[in-house]
Amino acid sequence: VQLQAFGGGLVQAGGSLRLSCAASGNIFSINGMGWYRQAPGKQRELVARIFSGSSTNYVDSVKGRFTISRDNAKTTVDLQMNSLNPEDTGVYYCNVYTWGHTDYWGKGTLVTVSS
To answer: In terms of Cα–Cα distance, which of 106, 101, 115, 113 is closest to 4?
Structure first.
């Protein structure tokens, strides 16, 4: 599975950004799709994830502000980020998790939120 991420950039606190990720290759193997982020000096953390049954989970710090969505063909996963704050700054990575328990990662895209 190959992943290509789009979006990211610089935004002021309180603003919004939308990240998109397109999957190609063996998309039929995909179970979950999601976004992780890594802030400077911190470990990579799960931001949001959506499973094949459309159930979702979010890290507590983004609940109510971020929304993850996926097309029915499981070829794209989007992350709508609202009310951004400087703590959301980091490199965001698209991730898919297959039925065979394999993780695939896209190249990161930088999100910078200025105060």
So the answer is: 106
Mean per-residue pLDDT, 64-70: 97
Helix/strand/coil percent split, the chain, to 5: 10, 55, 35
Contacts of 101 (CB under 8 A, 6+ apart): none
**Do residues 62 and 52 touch, judged by C-beta distance below 8 A?**
no
* Inter-residue contact 111 to 15 (CB < 8 Å): no
pLDDT in tens, 6-30: 999 999 999 999 999 999 999 889 9
Calpha distance 9→110 (Å, rounded): 6
